[in-house]
Design brief:
Oligomer: single chain
Structural class: mainly alpha
Radius of gyration: 13 Å
Order of helices and strands: EEHHH
Number of helices: 3
Helix content: 55-70%
Distance between the termini: 36 Å
Number of domains: 1
Length: 49
């Protein structure tokens, strides 16, 4: 959770960065972001092709 423009913990910031990376990559590859979050392997499959 962000509090006043920053994160409450380093672990929370890292989790946010991972999820944001999955969402950004999914959008660039025309994959629905929710689907990519539910199954991150779909992004790796798309990259390998």
């Amino acid at each position: 959770m962000k509090v006043a423009g920053c994160f409450r913990s380093e672990k929370g910031a890292e989790a946010y960065a991972v999820i944001q990376s999955i969402i950004d990559t999914a959008i660039k590859q025309n994959i629905k972001p929710l689907l990519a979050i539910q199954n991150p392997d779909i992004i790796c499959t798309q990259i390998a092709e």
